[in-house]
Amino acid sequence: MSILTEEPTLNSSELNTDGEDSTPSQxxxxxDIQKLLPHRYPFLLVDRIIDFVPNKSATGIKNVTFNEPFFxxxxxxxxxxxxxxxxxxxxxxxxxxxxxxxxxENQLSLFAGIDKVRFRxxxxxxxxxTITTELxxxxxxxxxxxxxxxxxxxxxxxxxxxxxxVNL
Length: 168
Hints:
Helix content is 14%, strand content 36%. The protein is mostly beta strands.
């Protein structure tokens, strides 16, 4: 159990990675996410994973606050979350999926490219960004995911993210 919630939390060794759809939804709190991703404040852009299907998909939450460092310059009079950071948040949620693929224990996933990215609405302080990524292709050193970010059910951004894998 997390100290802050009644929801059970899991560490990476507890996650079922057999790829079966019968697995109940799995929740990861910030402590769990920090064990899986190398990112840290102010660049860790995922607060919680609310749904995880091993080897397939993940859905995460980013609570966007006025205190985010990027709002100091983007833009002081009308703060808007930079689109590239929304894409990075999608990549970080995708990183949770990648960390559980077979053979990923000593691998780091790096951005290799983005395709078909479109921004549909601004993300502003007070928004709760819901980010879903789905693994489309996974090969030995390369893969592709589809990412989608929404606020209150409205599409904010979507696109395809390519990644390459390197040894740690």
